[in-house]
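Long-time lurker, first post. I've been practising inverse folding by hand and with some scripts of my own, and I keep getting stuck on stretches where the structure tokens seem ambiguous. Below is the full token string for one chain I'm working on. Before anyone asks, I'm not after the true native sequence, just a reasonable design that respects the backbone. If someone could post their per-position residues I'd love to compare against what I wrote down in my notebook.
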């Protein structure tokens, strides 16, 4: 059994190290440099802009003020959903920096297809049993820790829901944000350097991925090391971020449902 597992892991790593990209508009060395420079810009914009509470609150205030100039009753209607407006700003910012900016760089600067960076559903059905096998243990662990004070104080991240409607809207926005996040970390940062760095590119991606979890409970930050590595390898092995999106959204929605169910 151990020999079979070792052989499977070895074959997977060898396959990941043999990845290629079609010729583009810049040299592979320049592309790798640009991937990490653009990545640094994205992470900075997210940390100091999109994820800033003051920025989110300012944008929510601006939207409500704009609504007030149109119709005071509209502003009163929006006021209870201020938290949801902040979430919408977060999701919009994540889409802009995690997805749109890297996608523009891939298409206009590198001259590659987005499918070359994992944006494809190719093989999703074939690999679905494998994705479910990865999801189920994590989902089970979530149920084990869901009643802990740390978990309860953290999830759901959106705590100001008025009713079922805005709670469901939050979950949808939450899922969209994870799509953008997966494209950036498991698509752009992994596939953009795969022909030069192979598996080492996954390790390089994991470091900033873990760092964005430093504000969360310790077990989640530690878990991000494992999850980031596994999802990065899965993306390289399958050529698609679809599995990562499926697993990430599934775990996130399970965490929220478990947190609410335990209260």
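-- Answer (accepted) --
I ran through it position by position. Result:
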């Amino acid at each position: 059994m151990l020999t079979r597992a070792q052989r499977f892991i070895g074959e997977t790593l060898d396959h990941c190290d043999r990845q290629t990209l079609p010729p583009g508009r810049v040299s592979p060395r320049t592309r790798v440099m640009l991937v990490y420079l653009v990545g640094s810009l994205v992470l900075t914009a997210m940390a100091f802009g999109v994820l800033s509470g003051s920025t989110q609150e300012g944008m929510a205030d601006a939207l409500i003020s704009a609504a007030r100039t149109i119709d005071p009753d509209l502003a009163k209607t929006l006021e209870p959903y201020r938290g949801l407006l902040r979430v919408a700003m977060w999701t919009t910012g994540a889409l802009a920096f995690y997805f749109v900016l890297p996608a523009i760089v891939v298409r206009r600067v590198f001259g590659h297809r987005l499918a070359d960076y994992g944006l494809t559903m190719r093989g999703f059905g074939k690999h679905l049993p494998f994705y479910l096998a990865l999801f189920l243990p994590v989902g089970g662990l979530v149920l084990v820790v869901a009643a802990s004070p740390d978990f309860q104080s953290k999830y759901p991240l959106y705590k100001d829901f008025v009713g079922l409607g805005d709670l469901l809207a939050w979950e949808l926005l939450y899922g969209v944000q994870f799509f953008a996040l997966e494209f950036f970390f498991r698509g752009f940062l992994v596939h953009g350097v795969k022909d030069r760095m192979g598996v080492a590119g996954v390790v390089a991606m994991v470091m900033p991925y873990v760092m964005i979890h430093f504000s969360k409970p310790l077990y989640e930050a530690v878990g991000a090391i494992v999850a980031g590595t596994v999802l990065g390898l899965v993306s390289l092995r399958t050529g698609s971020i679809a599995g990562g999106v499926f697993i990430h959204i599934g775990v996130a929605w399970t965490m929220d449902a478990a947190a609410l169910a335990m209260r």
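A couple of notes from the structure itself: The chain has one domain: 26-261. The chain has a mean pLDDT of 90. Happy to go over any region you disagree with.
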